Request: fold
Amino acid sequence: MEVPTVSSKDNALQELSLLCKRDVNGVGTLYDLLRSRWLQALLKIYECLQHYLGKRPDPVTLQARALSREVVELLHQAPQSGEIKELRRLLRSPHFKALLSAHDTVAQKDFEPTLPPLPDNIPENEEAMRIVCLVKNNQPLGATIKRHEITGDITVARVIHGGLADRSGLLYAGDKLVEVNGVPVEGLEPEQVINILLYVRAMTDYWPLQDPAIPCADAGLPFKRGEILQIVDQNDAFWWQARKVSDLSACAGLIPSNHLLKRKQREFWWCQPFQPHLCLKSSM
Reply:
């Protein structure tokens, strides 16, 4: 529905004024409505928004960070002068990289987490199944689970008011947990399910020595697609500490966080994005 502008509203008021004199039913009410100050204010806001939408700037590129790296490589091959060395230093500075990363985030509208693709083995009654993605950093999940005394299913016992699960509006008491982070929970104890929340399955290969953004390549943890990683520290928003389940005695290493992993995927460094998720089946 097209909203009339202020100029068209004035023309409508003139016509309605003539109709009001003829006592046409309902015209007087509509005439008073169009003359109201709040409606005129809304129409002015609408015109301002339309003006902004018509003139808002479009980003020249969605991959400014990747373009900066290409420029640095070209400058490295060029004859070295004082200006080129200074430009390389600026492009490689952490603050400038952070600025370009912020630009790419805004340009790509990368504001919300992305759900992983639906699994292939969804049961026929797919309406009873839903996949929930909760991005969990340092804050607790805000929900408790229990085992059903009769069926043995793992269900959500309660959702804590104001917690992460409550604010998301995606988890409800009585929901049956089918899968957590890609791991089926059938037959597991609630304590085992809680431990799964600290583990993730790698959805791509990662080699720290090939990642120029990692703070210290020697401290990175290389892994291959399908390996299970235990997350031991999430204090850094971009670089988590983890170790492989196959070698828990080894020291933890740095891996990209979910947010950083998604950004790298948008820069075509990764084969597909990954977000930890809870696969739930409603018991109702």
